[in-house]
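Form 7-S
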Amino acid sequence: MRYTLLFHYTEESEESIGAERMADGMRAFASYAATLEQAGILVYGQVLQPSSASTTLTCADGEPRIQDGPFADTKEQLGGFVVIDVPDLDAALAWARQSPPATWGGTVEIRPGAVHIEAGMWVPS
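Output:
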């Protein structure tokens, strides 16, 4: 079963936390990803750019609207994710507990895959 681990954190700039702490965080994520890869469960992962680099598309009353920056005015943002392939939720939770956000007091959302495309059709995982 595939699970996506979504890493949420409070966005801070490199200037406010320092280049050394920022580099430590990036090394911690790289080490975590390497551990997942060595275990043979990493499907894909990526650290994301700050929310200030995002563009959001919403549709209201049939009209699409585009907004630069984060959708909601919040300081907690999605900072990255990994997709892992493990037998069950217990295994996904065990791996999530080892992630940098979980060890630093951040938030990790564990979301199971729901559907995939097979022969042009959406089907349950």
